[in-house]
Design a protein that fits this description.
This protein is of the alpha+beta class and about 400 residues long. It contains 8 helices and 21 strands. The longest helix is centred in the first third of the chain and has 17 residues.
């Protein structure tokens, strides 16, 4: 193994060694093995490829991480990425869309296999087919070019704090990118110091209305005007810098799937956010929604005001008394998954159906394996909420044995 160090200002370190890429792993990187047996996890690499050089981004005693920089033999699934900044925002731009969907299904199965759960083989990742320009929210850094004395939109280089100026980006809605260019033009015209701005957050509704703006360093985050969107015929209001789904067209596909399994009169929606799941699929039932974030809860109350739904301001693990044996329970937790106290409550009370939507199949699999003491998996359906990235949302429906 030969090391090649660059003495440029970024002090980048390159390692030259022939590596055969084995597979993509949960998290999205490609896995290979060095001659000394140490594992290496690489971005910009695909299964079956032969890598001869990579830029080192992290070195641990048992593994290395990096970015493939020289490819001796490319995969037949490799394509040219659309954006120069793809590693920062959407590192799977390097493969065909069909390959992306297949890899996501395989990684999902691997997440559950690690918990000794074998998922059925008859599912595929659902998508609306839109690979680009789907994100309705984006947060940009700012890059100051000393030669031109101009500010540019930027993203952080993967694996570092270095900012990369960008001239185009293909995963957010075009209205967001256009608004960002207008903001940067105004900042340059006013000769604003880029160092005074932490980032710029923008969000767009389905009708193309854009809200958001700069976050100023050492200042409270501003309150931006609310946006409105219609999901399955129901209108929701939400804050641009609050929680709201990134890809609404695919989200509606997931909600239609969820609605098929809501078969009891009583429904409990935990980790409810602004209420888009429960209100979209069960507003006509005896619905209880629980949310702990005060800002999201205010929006939840507003979205539920013309329904009979009951709203609770509490952490889901502190609202255990609302879990009852005659209801359908819906959970859409953060990436950390469900709190163990909530899992234990499910196993004690035994509601007939638990509908579990997750943005992190690894923690979902961990929770599901505990619930299989009393439940069986009745349905599995992943959704490609985040095309050209390693991320996906997965729906698991659990039925009481």
């Amino acid at each position: 193994m030969k090391n090649r160090s660059k003495t440029a200002k970024n002090c980048e370190k390159y390692i030259t060694e022939r590596i055969i890429v084995e597979k993509l792993i949960p998290g999205g990187e490609a896995l290979g093995t060095l001659a000394d047996g140490k594992k290496v996890m690489l971005w910009n690499a695909l299964p079956g490829e032969i890598i001869t050089e990579f830029q080192l981004t992290k070195s641990k005693s048992s593994y290395l991480q990096g970015i493939a920089t020289k490819i001796e033999q490319a995969s037949s699934s490799r394509i040219e990425p659309r954006d120069a900044c793809y590693l920062s925002t959407s590192p799977w731009q390097i493969m065909t869309y069909e390959s992306e969907l297949a890899q996501k299904a395989q990684i999902l199965r691997e997440n559950f296999r690690q918990q000794k759960i074998t998922l059925p083989t008859d599912f595929s990742v659902q998508t609306d087919g839109q690979e680009y320009f789907y994100r309705n929210k984006m947060e940009y850094a700012l890059y100051y070019d000393h030669e031109t004395a101009q500010i540019f939109p930027a993203f952080h280089q993967r694996g570092s704090h270095r900012k990369l100026p960008i001239e185009k980006s293909s995963i957010e809605r075009p209205e967001i990118w256009q608004k960002m260019q207008e903001i940067v033009h105004n900042l340059n015209a006013q000769k604003v110091d880029a160092r005074s701005i932490q980032s710029v957050l923008l969000r767009a509704s389905q009708t193309g209305e854009v809200a958001g703006g700069p976050f100023i360093n050492h200042q409270p985050r501003p309150v931006f005007p609310e946006l409105h969107d219609t999901i399955l015929g129901r209108e929701y209001s939400y804050s641009p810098n609050g929680f709201f789904q990134i890809n609404l067209l695919v989200y509606e596909m997931a909600l239609r799937e969820i609605a098929q399994f809501v078969q009891t009169d009583q429904v409990l929606d935990l980790y409810a956010g602004v209420g888009t799941i429960g209100l979209s699929v069960a507003a006509d039932r005896r619905l209880t929604l629980v949310e702990c974030d005060k800002s999201a809860y205010r929006e939840l109350e507003n979205n539920a005001k013309f329904t009979n739904a009951k709203t609770i301001l509490a952490k889901s693990e502190d609202a255990l008394e609302y879990v009852q044996p005659d209801q359908t329970v819906i959970v859409d937790p953060p990436r950390a998954g469900c709190d163990p106290k909530l899992i234990e409550r499910f196993l004690t009370v035994l509601p007939p159906t638990i509908i579990y939507l997750s943005c992190n199949p690894a923690t979902q699999a961990r929770d599901v394996v505990m619930l299989t003491k009393a439940y069986e998996i009745a349905h599995v359906q992943p959704f490609n909420f985040f095309p050209r990235t390693p991320h996906l949302e997965n729906l698991i429906v659990l039925q009481r044995r």
